Amino acid sequence: MDPNLEIFLLCVMLGSIVGVFAGLLGIGGGLLIVPAMVFLLHFFLQIDIEIGMPIAIATSLSTVIMTGLSSARSHYKLGNLDKRIITYCGFGIAIGATLGAQFASFISGVLLQRIFAVLVILIALQMVFGSRKTSQHTIGKPGLSGIGCTSGFICALMGIGGGALIVPALLWFQVNIRKAIGCAAFSGIIVAVFGTLNFVIMGWKNPDLPEWSLGYVYLPATFGIIATSMLTAPIGVKLGQKLDTAKLKKVFAAFLVLVSIRMIIGIE
Fold first, then answer.
1. How many CB atoms lie under 10 A from the CB of residue 132?
2. DSSP secondary structure of the chain
3. What's the pTM value of the predicted model, to 2 decimals?
4. Which residues contact 71 (CB under 8 A, 6 or more apart)?
5. What distance in Å separates the CA atoms of residue 73 and residue 75, rounded to the nearest whole number?
6. Lower Cβ count inside 10 Å, N or C end of the chain?
7. Which of 268, 257, 236, 258 is nearest to 15 (CA)?
8. Neighbouring residues of 258: CB distance < 8 A, sequence distance ≥ 6
């Protein structure tokens, strides 16, 4: 069987898992997609980490566009999008995502892999030990742009939508939780669009990329993941109403730490 087709079929399965966990725990799919893509590209196409890591991140970002549109549309209907937040935060995100994608394209794949792994460990720790305390101050326009720029840079570097970073930051400054989640969903689209576009441009004429690639975006994986993740996310949401998500988050965080340690060690 064509290895590209094999990866597509496996990504259809991956997308279903990503969708369930995204709906169940409210986590970004990139935390699962990037490590999985690095493995699949290495196993089926013998692509080493130098090329595999930016492909994995770019591909993960490309999947966020469609899932983010669906999520943001739902939040818009619920009135959870704050125009001031998405305007100024979004401006910063666009700049940060552009810089993050370009930075990821220039550094070595090994360094990028280790940066990703360390950041995932920090996110996992925040999932388990994150404080719910808030600041005594609200946030102004420069602060929103600063949060956006920082989050956009990190998210483009990791291939994630940004909810794990933006929501806690907005909550710290006393933003209503529904509006924080809604604005994070909208912000994920901005990260994905600007990040993906820059990864496409940076990898456009790279001769080492596999066939069916658009710049660094590997299309079979993108379409495979999107095909099922959008269908299974509602299942995860329903499960979240019945299961103890606090305990599941701890288990998932432990899993992320183990995967990240493996990535730091490297794929042999």
1. 7
2. --HHHHHHHHHHHHHHHHHHHHHHH---THHHHHHHHHHHHHHHH---HHHHHHHHHHHHHHHHHHHHHHHHHHHHHTT---HHHHHHHHHHHHHHHHHHHHHHHHS-HHHHHHHHHHHHHHHHHHHHH------SS---HHHHHHHHHHHHHHHHHHT--SHHHHHHHHHHTT--HHHHHHHHHHHHHHHHHHHHHHHHHHTTT-TTSPTTEETTEEHHHHHHHHHHHHHHHHHHHHHHTTS-HHHHHHHHHHHHHHHHHHHHH---
3. 0.89
4. 185, 188
5. 5
6. C
7. 236
8. none
Angle between helices 245-265 and 3-25 (to 10 degrees): 140
- CA 265 to chain CA centroid, nearest Å: 22
Question: What separation in angstroms does the CA of 171 have from each of 65, 70, 72, 122?
Answer: 24, 23, 18, 18
